Amino acid sequence: MTLCDVYLQPEVAFEVLSRLGEMGCVQFIDMHPELQLFQRSFVQEVCRCSEMERKLRYMEDEMKLHKIHIPDIQDLPKAVPIHELGQFEAKIEKWGTDISEISANETDLMKNYLELTELLYVLEYIGPLLGRADISTETKIKAKAPAAGDVQQTTGRLFVITGVVNRAKAFAFEMMLWRMSHGMIHYRQAAEDKILIDPATRQEIRKVAFLAICPGEQLSIRINKVCNGFRVNTYPCPPTHKDRSDMISKLHTRVFDLDQVLSKTRYLRCKALQNVGKNFRSWMAQVRKSKAVYHQMNLFNLDITKKCLIGQTWVPDADLEQVNTTFANCCHDLQTNVESFIGKIDHNLVPPTYHRTNEFTRGFQNLINAYGDSTYRELNPGLYTVVTFPFLFAVMFGDVGHGFLVFLFGFWMWRNEKRFLKSKSDNEIWNIIFGGRYVILLMGAFSIFIGACYNDVFGTQFTFGRSYFRNHLSVEDLSKNELIDVDPAKETGSVYLLGVDPIWGLSKNSIMVQNSMKMKLSIIFGVVHMIFGVVLSVVNYCYFKRSYSIYLQFIPEVVFLSFLFFWLVILIYYKWFMYSAKSKYGTSCAPQILILFIDMALCSETQPVEENCKLAYMFDNQRTIQMALLAVALLMVPILLLGSPLYKNRLNQKKRKEAVRKLDSFKRYEYDPEEPEKSEKREQELQDEVDKYTIPFGELMIHQGVHTIEYVLSTISHTASYLRLWALSLAHAELSEMLYHMIFSKLALSHHHILGSLRVFVIFTVWAVFSVCILVVMEGLSAFLHTLRLHWVEFMSKFYGGGGYQFQPFSFKKILASDSDKSEAGCKKFLT
Question: 719, 742, 761 — which closes off a domain?
Fold first, then answer.
């Protein structure tokens, strides 16, 4: 990665940055990070592009709302040049204004249409309830005389209220009216609801017409308040039957006319949206590219003459020649008098880290970047993760059937990736899963292989060939015993073709055999994986020229890890090969490896397994060798603790003396009073070099002490952490076997009556749902997270720092893929 100065002439700046954006291989540095957007030079152009993008977003929402197809385009156009920006802006302004006016007119028409439709609905369904009765101001309600001879008293006149209420609120509305009026109300609803369209949301709403007749003006006022609270639309009811009939006839005519006008308006709107949709992808790409270019131009420093843009950029060395060619071609094509150019500069900055990835490796690299971006030129573990990640996952998830389902899901995403890439989804979970489609594909493939080694298919076993074990009993003996013992010390066949012998699926002690095998394999995989991580640290030491760390850190670390835990791996293999039923040692007196290792750590002597066993160790002089290995391993601890601090302290003292000598020499003989700024800058550089090597020995000891304690203790804890491979693998196998035998086999396959096929179909569905939801999804996610932890903590901590920052090039491809629609906050302040 190279840091370069960039000098651009204003007339070619847009075109040069546009071509660099198409290439996507440069990262510009902000020359004035303290400035806000409204304080920069090209804020007006950015805000104009942002406003055009907002209008295009509005038109896109309208097209999605009315289901207008937006065709895709193969080749995206270039950014809008400066001299065409005004014309392009006017075109978008025209279409945006036309569509907004049409939409506003349609909304007004729909409001009128809704009101007329509701009124017509009220009159058609509530009118018959009034019949031919006339509602006038003389309509009175009279109370009956309480006794003979009393005079009748007028208590008030009737008030009729009609309207429509939302069906969801109809019952609550009716109960409120009854409670508020104490039952002194005549309330009726229409028998059928009316489905209407809300002009604001364009969603269907169900409303029902009602009729309320109440005595007294005060009560009618209360009813109107309740209607306002429930947002009920009330409509006046004509007083006479003739008036109601005439209004219904007029409403039919007006509703029909409005319907025709609405149809014409929708046609014009759809036609306008279809015209916009044909060019929408091109317009949006041009606007976003132009805005991105102006954003990059704002990162430059405009000199006082305003005739040159000066900036800095990071460029990968492999793309530097291509960038220089782009500058030269732009100046030649535009025929500028003064050339724009780019030049390398010396610097003390830490460059960004750039890992070139493709569709296959990007998912694995994202797993590493989630932990932290590697320091510049630090060893990238992403390449090794392509193999180690799916393998360790498969060790915990090993099942041919379940692995095939995971592989099938990954294969389906891979086959349809072009379609999924075109149709961008807003679902964040789906985007994460689709981004790791190749990770899922390999996890499924490795799970199939490890499942074949485990001989496990949905909790059952399969047979590729004859078993290693042989039956030596007669038919009579077999008929007497439900279970038989197969003795491997007697005559046996050839070794089974692949993986675990299927006869263990019929054995009652199958769990014991699997438990022992998987536990030892997890230790082997863990120790080898950690040693591989320690070995990779040598690459970093060599590149960063820290050769002393190879002798003072790498060798002690690998010796400590190998002499303790790799020795444990050797014992496991030795016991597998030397202690068997057919060997001279047998199996009854085989020493327990765990006891041997514990006694080795405690410096105690191991006793035989049983009293009749003569030997407590696997071979002669084993205890002597183990004590020697333990002594050497413990000797590595003080080397780790003291080696690096002592060497660094001595080296720093030597370099500090040299730096102080240079500083004194500069102050005495080279300081130039006529150029104080240049002299002070050089003096500060020399002083910084002195401070760089002025590190207290105590600080070095604390740093190295923390690292030593962490490594020594983590070596033990990390080895134990790899036992999760054993635990999850065993749990997955047992749960799979339980689901198969307790649900599918016991409930479905054990019945042979005439309805057995239907029973098998139903039970198979239940078993398949449980298998997919629990064993594939939940167990798969659990195994994935544990595998991620094993890489981040147990493996990468041995050599990976992850203290860098990622190279983020100016790329139109990434900008258009991000699909960000955030507004520019600085534009509001600029416009105000």
Answer: 719
Q: Tens digit of pLDDT for each residue in 630-646?
A: 999 999 999 999 988 99
Stated length of the chain: 832
Same domain, yes or no, for 254 and 298? no
Strands 194-197 and 309-315: unpaired
Last residue of a domain, one of 264, 297, 321: 264
Closest by Cα among 565, 710, 546 to 641: 710
- The encoded tokens of residue 564 equal 């303790």
My answer on whether 685 and 727 are in the same domain is no
Are 715 and 728 within one domain? no
**Are 508 and 482 within 8 A, CB to CB?**
no
630 and 754 housed in the same domain? no
Contact of 78 with 330, CB cutoff 8 Å: no
Is the whole-model pTM more than 0.90?
no
Q: Is residue 172 part of a domain?
A: yes
The confidence score (pLDDT) of residue 133 equals: 61
> Which residues are registered as beta bridge partners of 205?
196
pLDDT at 146: 44
pLDDT of 73 > 90? The answer is no
Please choose, from the candidates 392, 348, 342, 344, the residue with its C-alpha nearest in 3D space to the C-alpha of residue 367: 392
The token pair that represents 203 in the structure block: 């969603």
- The 8 Å CB, 24+ separation contacts for 827-831 are 827/37, 827/38, 827/43, 827/46, 827/47, 827/50, 827/51, 829/36, 829/38, 830/37, 830/38, 830/43, 830/44, 830/47, 831/47
Q: Is residue 490 part of a domain?
A: no
Judge if 24 and 90 occupy the same domain.
Answer: yes
Contact at 8 Å (CB) between 44 and 298? no
Alpha helices in 24-84 (DSSP H): 43-65
Contacts of 776 (CB under 8 A, 6+ apart): 402, 405, 406
Same domain, 205 and 257: yes
Residues 483-510: tens digit of each pLDDT: 777 778 788 888 888 888 888 888 888 8
The DSSP output letter for 385 is H
Long-range contacts of 583-590 (CB under 8 A, 24+ apart): 588/613, 589/613, 589/614, 589/615
Q: State how beta strands 309-315 and 301-302 pair.
A: antiparallel
Residues 419-459 have pLDDT tens digits of: 888 777 778 889 899 999 999 999 999 999 999 999 899 98
DSSP 196: E
Rounded Cα–Cα distance for residues 226 and 178 (Å): 11
Residue 187 lies in a domain: yes
Q: Which range marks the domain in which residue 308 is found? A: 2-100+287-344
Amino acid code (one letter) for 592 = Q
503 CB neighbour count, 10 Å cutoff: 17
Helical residues (DSSP H) of 237-371, grouped into ranges: 241-298, 320-334, 362-371
In the chain, the number of structural domains is 4
In a domain, 494, yes or no: no
Residue 353 banded pLDDT, cuts 50, 70, 90: very high
